[in-house]
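Notebook entry, structure prediction.
Reason for the run: the old model in the group folder had no record of what sequence produced it. Starting over properly, with the input documented here first.
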Amino acid sequence: MPKASGKPLGELVENRIVIWDIEESRKLFNGGFYGKPIGIAKPKGSDFDAPLILDLIEGYYLAKIGRISIYKSGRKRKVSLKSMEKICRKEYVDFEEKFFVYKKLREANYVVTPGIKFGCDFAVYERGPGIDHAPYLVKVVKPDEDITATSIVLSGRLATTVRKQFILAFVEAEQDKVNFLSFDWWRA
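New structure, fully documented this time:
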């Protein structure tokens, strides 16, 4: 697959972005643990021979910071950032808030992966998958969103079961910040 402006090309396939070029896949994975090699559950470093699959949020983030270009499958036509944002808004509830938290965590040098298997928005690593386990599970909360005690207990119990810290991320986009509230569970 050719490159656009020296950037890796990602093909938008339904609600994922695929980097078909193996070398570019390795570079992206090695340069921040972006995506997951197709068919490899737990990659050990960037020594793999598979295309890389990205979540929409991480693909949009990489396009926004100029690391990849995205094209639509079948058309070989570039997808604009505006179009990508529109697609993300359709796919994710509260996309703006989730993207804002994703961006802030990435800018703070954390590795951020989807947290769906843990029932949250993100699993967050200090170093990266295969190097350490994600110590944090993050749920993004809008400032006006009600949080029930039951949902906090459920999330906390799950996080404790998988030995992770449960964190709520409250977005204050107007002030360009996120407030993180973590819960420690202990027995009396």
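Summary: The helical segments are 22-30, 56-64, 81-91, 95-107, 149-161.
The old model has been moved to the deprecated folder.
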